[in-house]
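sry for the spam today, last one i promise. C-alpha cells for design, 496 residues
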C-alpha cells in the first residue's frame, strides 16, 4: 500500500504546483485523464499523481479531485461540484480484502484548491505518518487519566520528517519519548529509544506491544547506536539532561545525520538553542506550531565537547560527599524535605529498609550509617538517579549491603518482606500535576511491609497525604513539620 495523493487541476496550474510540492513528496510521470462529461463541467485535462515515500507508514490511499475517487473511474459530477467545488475523500486500504471506506472531509471551491494544494498534501501525508497517535495510551496507572499520550511537539517532529527519505538499513535514535508517540510511529525502522524514565519505557513497551511492533529501549548511560541517519529528541526542561544528551550524541553523528529537537514553548529552556548550537552545530529554529517549536541541525564536524561531570558537594554535618548525574532532583543542594527527614530519621531495629523515590540516595545513605547491618534497597524510576545513589553508596559506605534499582515503584518486590519504607513522593508526571504516583507508592509500600512494618513519608503539607494513609493503613502520626513540609509515620497492622 502507498500513500497516493491525486490532484486534478488545469494544465496551467500543474507546473507551479509541482515546484511547490517537489520538496514534500516525489512525483511519478503525469497521466492524462479520460474525458469526463457532466452537466456544467468541462474537460479535466491533466492528472498529476504523487506517491509519498512508502517507508513513512503508507497506510492511507488519498484522492483529492474534482470528481470522485480516481481509482474507481470517472463519475458524473454532483450538483455541488458543478458549481465549482472540489471534494476531498480519505480512503483506507486494507489487505488482503482491499476494502475501501471513504469519508468526506470537506468541500473546497476550485479557486481555493490551487492555493490549498500544498496544505492538503502536507496534512494528508501527516495523517499517514501519525495515524497511530490516537491509539496510544499513557499507562500512567491513574484510572482517571484521560490525557493524550502525545502532544503538539510530537506531531511537529513527525511533520518535520515528511520531506526526508529514510533508509531502512540505518538506525534512528529517539531521545526523551514520553509514551511512545515517536517510537511507535517509526518502529518499522531500526529504532533505539533512549529515556531516563522507567515509567516511560514501560509505556513505550506497552504501546509497541499493542501495535505489534518492536524497538530497542535503552537508558542514557547505555551505549547508543553509531552514525544514525536521524535523531529525534524531545527537549527536556532540565538543561543538565539536554547537555548530557548532546555531549553523548556528538561523537556518534555522521556528516549527513539530521538532528531534530522539539518541545512545547513553555517547557523549552531559554538557553536551549545556544546549547544545541554549541554542542552539535548551526541550528535553525522553525516557526512555532500549536505552541510547539522544532530546532533543526547537523554536525559541524568539530571535536565533541567533553561529557558534563557529576556535580558533587559535601553533606553538612557528615564526612560524606554526594555526587549527582544529570536530571537528578535537587542536584545543586539538599532539598528542604530531605533536610527535615534527616533531622528526624526513624529509630529502632530494621533488617530490610527501602528508600522509595531515592533520588541521590541521601536518606538511604544516612540510615545505612546508623544501621550498617541492615539490607537496603534504593529505588527510583530515573536511571540517572539510581546511578547517582549507587555511586554515593559505593564511595561513602562501600561495606553496606545495598541494591540500587531502577523500577516503577515497588513492582516485583516480595510481599511482607520489609521492615521500613522511607518515601519522598513526587506529585507530578512530566508536566502533569497528579497524586496517583504517591497513591501507587503507598499501596506498594503497604504490600511489601511486614505486619508491624513502618512507612515514613515526607511531603508538602498541602497535599493531604494523611487522608490517603488513613484510608490505606488506618491512620498515621505527625513526626515533625515546618511551614512547608510534614513527616508522617504509619504502621501496617493488617495484612490486606
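last one done:
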Amino acid at each position: 500500500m502507498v500513500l497516493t495523493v491525486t490532484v486534478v487541476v488545469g494544465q496551467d496550474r500543474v507546473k507551479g504546483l509541482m515546484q511547490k510540492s517537489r520538496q514534500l513528496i516525489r512525483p511519478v510521470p503525469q497521466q492524462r485523464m479520460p474525458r469526463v462529461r457532466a452537466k456544467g463541467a468541462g474537460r479535466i485535462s491533466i492528472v498529476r499523481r504523487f506517491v509519498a515515500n512508502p517507508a513513512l507508514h503508507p497506510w492511507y490511499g488519498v484522492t483529492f479531485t474534482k470528481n470522485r475517487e480516481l481509482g474507481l473511474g470517472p463519475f458524473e459530477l454532483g450538483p455541488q461540484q458543478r458549481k465549482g467545488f472540489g471534494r476531498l475523500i480519505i480512503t483506507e486500504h486494507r489487505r488482503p480484502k482491499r476494502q475501501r471506506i471513504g469519508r468526506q472531509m470537506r468541500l473546497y471551491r476550485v479557486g481555493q484548491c490551487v492555493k490549498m494544494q500544498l496544505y492538503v498534501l502536507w496534512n494528508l501525508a501527516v495523517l499517514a505518518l501519525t495515524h497511530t497517535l490516537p491509539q496510544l495510551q499513557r499507562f500512567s496507572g491513574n484510572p482517571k487519566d484521560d490525557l493524550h499520550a502525545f502532544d503538539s511537539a510530537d506531531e511537529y517532529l513527525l511533520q518535520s520528517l515528511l520531506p526526508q527519505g529514510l533508509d531502512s538499513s540505518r538506525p534512528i535514535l529517539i531521545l526523551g519519548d514520553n509514551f511512545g508517540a515517536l517510537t511507535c510511529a517509526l518502529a518499522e525502522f531500526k529504532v533505539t529509544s533512549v529515556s531516563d524514565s522507567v515509567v516511560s519505557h514501560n509505556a513505550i513497551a506497552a504501546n509497541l506491544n499493542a501495535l505489534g511492533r518492536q524497538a530497542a529501549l535503552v537508558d542514557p548511560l547505555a551505549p547508543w547506536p553509531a552514525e544514525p541517519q536521524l535523531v529525534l529528541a524531545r527537549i527536556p526542561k532540565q538543561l543538565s539532561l539536554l547537555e548530557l544528551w548532546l555531549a553523548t550524541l556528538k561523537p556518534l553523528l555522521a556528516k549527513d545525520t539530521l538532528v531534530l529537537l522539539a518541545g512545547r514553548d513553555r517547557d523549552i529552556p531559554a538557553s536551549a538553542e545556544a546549547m544545541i548550537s554549541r554542542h552539535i552545530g548551526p541550528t535553525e529554529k522553525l516557526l512555532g506550531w500549536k505552541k510547539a517549536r522544532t530546532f533543526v541541525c547537523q554536525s559541524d564536524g568539530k571535536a565533541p565537547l567533553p561529557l558534563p561531570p557529576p556535580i558533587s558537594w559535601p553533606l553538612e554535618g557528615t564526612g560524606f560527599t554526594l555526587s549527582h548525574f544529570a536530571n537528578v532532583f535537587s542536584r545543586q543542594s539538599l532539598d528542604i524535605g530531605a533536610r527535615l527527614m534527616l533531622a528526624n530519621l526513624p529509630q529502632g531495629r530494621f533488617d530490610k529498609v527501602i528508600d522509595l523515590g531515592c533520588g541521590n540516595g541521601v536518606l538511604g545513605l544516612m540510615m545505612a550509617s546508623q544501621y550498617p547491618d541492615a539490607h537496603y534497597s534504593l529505588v527510583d524510576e530515573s536511571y540517572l538517579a539510581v546511578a547517582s545513589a549507587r555511586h554515593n553508596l559505593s564511595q561513602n559506605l562501600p561495606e553496606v549491603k545495598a541494591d540500587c534499582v531502577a523500577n516503577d515503584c515497588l513492582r516485583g518486590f516480595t510481599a511482607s518482606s520489609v521492615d521500613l519504607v522511607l518515601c519522598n513522593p513526587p506529585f507530578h508526571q512530566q508536566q502533569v500535576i497528579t497524586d496517583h504516583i504517591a497513591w501507587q507508592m503507598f499501596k506498594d509500600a503497604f504490600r511489601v511491609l511486614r505486619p508491624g512494618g513502618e512507612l515514613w513519608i515526607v511531603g508538602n503539607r498541602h497535599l493531604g497525604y494523611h487522608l490517603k494513609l488513613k484510608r490505606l493503613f488506618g491512620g498515621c502520626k505527625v513526626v515533625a513539620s515546618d511551614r512547608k513540609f510534614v513527616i508522617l509515620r504509619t504502621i501496617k497492622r493488617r495484612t490486606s
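The chain has three domains: 4-131, 137-297, 311-491. ok im logging off now
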